[in-house]
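User: Need the bound-state model for uridine-diphosphate-N-acetylglucosamine:
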Amino acid sequence: MSRLTAIILAAGKGTRMKSARPKVLHEVCGRPMLSYVVEAARAAGAEDIVLVINPEMTAVKDLFNDTVSYAYQEEQLGTGHAVRIAEGLVSQTAEEVLVLCGDTPLLTGNLLLELIGVHRGRQAAATVLTAKLDDPTGYGRIIRSAAGTVERIVEEKDANPAEKAIVEVNTGSYCFDKKALFSALAQVGCDNAQGEYYLTDVLPIMQDKGQLVQAYLVPEPMLTQGINNRVQLAAAEAFLRAQIRERHMLAGVTIIDPASTFIDASVTIEPDTVIYPFSILEGNTIIEKNCIIGPSAQIKDSTIGAGAQVCYAVLQEAQVGPGADVGPFTYLRPGTVLAEKSKAGTFVEIKKSYIGPESKVPHLSYVGDATLGRHVNIGAGTITCNYDGVNKHPTVIEDGVFIGSNTNLVAPVKIGRGAYTGAGSTITKDVPTDALGLERAEQKNIEGWAERRRQKALLRKNP
Ligand code: UD1
Ligand code: CA
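Assistant: Bound-state model below.
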């Protein structure tokens, strides 16, 4: 099989996005749209990928680093010019070149494989991926010969009324024979309505040389949809999200209400997990089997162990162990690790802490920079005072400790194995193993005080 290089055009400014960010870096289901195109090209067998970008798009380089090569187009002189700039970076051994646009995130590797298959099947010089659209406005129209081959493509701005009536359009993806492409491209001029070098003008040149120029009509036009504005961005997002949910459901995940469930492309979910409404699963999140997620869980870059439960909670870079219980109304911040069968309950915030197996932080607590052993019970209202305004300090709570309600643990501090703290204590010193740490003014009861107060009040009212 011959070697394939993909050239992905992404230098356009994308002005209709009205954004400071390059268009191709806008995200669809949590990933920049350009990364979908790169992935589709790779899945179709492209060994080398050349991105044509504007030199100012440094963020694109940060994203792909040296996994692709970059051709810099300073002035957008047209798609033909963009491909010509990439020529020097196309591998010497490549025989075929895919040309794709960076703003078509719904393209799939399978669709490109079909395009390449049709191209190879007839040893064409060029195979254009085309689509029939209800509203072809804005796209280049496909002018077919009587034999069905492609004679040329006419841009909207150069089209006459009869040409504008054609509903088969150029999607902007092509498979080319490398030699045929670059020799025709050298002959392309810019004598057209936009004064641009049109890539599509290689087609009639090839045609004149007796080379085959054909089209492959896409079975599902949505897959080739380009994103020019944020309305189209939202439509692509909705399309891809629906596919992601469907993939998970067919793989054994119950999604109670697909319409209110949002799952990023990069999320993994194992079978027999149930997702309740209003849940958002983002980034590199992994949810193991038999979990109950939601309602209203927003989970990003986190791992949820088998059989765990997370409801009404926000999780970021957290690890929840098997059988653990999170929520309702819980905030787990980066670096939180809940070991198996532990609990983070109602109105609890945990940051950068390890909660040992079967340990519980059930209500109204802040736990930060803490390490808890196993079977620890944290009373309601307990706060780790981990920050002195300058530095963060650790709290260590060993196995079997019972922290009384409303304890302040002023870090750095350590509570030894099996120890207790008295409710309401502000603990500033380490508590030894099996001790009770108590810091509380002694209670005094003043007999008859309330009755005397009531009498005084009565006297004031009726002197
Ligand atoms: C082009 C096609 C048109 C097709 C449409 C599909 C040509 C002449 N026309 O239209 O037939 O229906 O795509 O969307 O090719 N780009 C560069 N450098 C440039 C110009 C464009 O990198 O100088 C990139 C853009 O970033 C974009 C892609 O090429 O990713 C297509 O450019 P765009 O301006 O959107 O397409 P048109 O030229 O309008
Ligand atoms: Ca244009």
